[in-house]
């Protein structure tokens, strides 16, 4: 199973690296980072750089694509090199997936009309611009489109995808291998559980 994760400036690192770690551990799966041109791409903090080892043209027909989000998403919604590649690659994929605001790029590619999808809570309503049915859930799958909520949800999405593509035991073995046993110190990972006023403070960190 060949997976491609497209990178663009100011992507959020965990959006890409979380699913990468899960899927790269799976037997028989290969994961490639791609960009408009092969080379380094820097994340939204300006301090972490991932190496795209392929250009979009090098990987026209992956089995799976995982589109990360990040503050840079809004800058590339009209980037036809990226959006056009997503649209074209989707014709060949078994699964087309996104993490966080990466779902907006699926929308820009015209893939979400009438599809139930999710994204980061702060931009959930933006999905309706693309004719999508926006839902506040951790992971949502409809047909071959699978979307994850914000950032850390990409790990959940990748494990869910792996179970569908292979079997539950394989996904469980990967989960155990990476010791994904989350026990967050605070119950504020969602606007539904966060203290009053915390949402505004959190938005200040990502805007």
What is the strand and helix layout of this fold?
Blueprint: E1 2-6, H1 13-25, E2 30-35, E3 39-42, E4 49-52, E5 54-55, E6 64-67, H2 80-90, E7 95-99, H3 102-108, E8 116-117, E9 133-134, E10 139-142, E11 145-148, H4 153-165, H5 168-177, H6 198-206
Parallel strand pairs: 1-2, 1-6, 2-5, 6-7, 7-11, 8-9
Antiparallel strand pairs: 3-4, 10-11
Helix pairs in contact: 1-4, 4-5
Properties at a glance:
207 residues, alpha/beta, Rossmann fold, seven-stranded mixed beta sheet, two-stranded antiparallel ribbon, 6 helices, 11 strands, DJ-1/PfpI, INH-QAR, EC 4.2.1.-
Explain how this protein is built.
It comes from Nonomuraea insulae. It is an enzyme of class 4 (lyase). One of its GO terms (molecular function) is lyase activity. The protein is an alpha/beta fold. The chain has a single domain, classed as Rossmann fold. It is 30% helix and 20% strand. The chain has six helices and eleven strands. The strands form three sheets. The chain has a seven-stranded mixed sheet. It has a two-stranded antiparallel sheet with strand order 3-4. The model has no long low-confidence stretch (mean pLDDT 97).
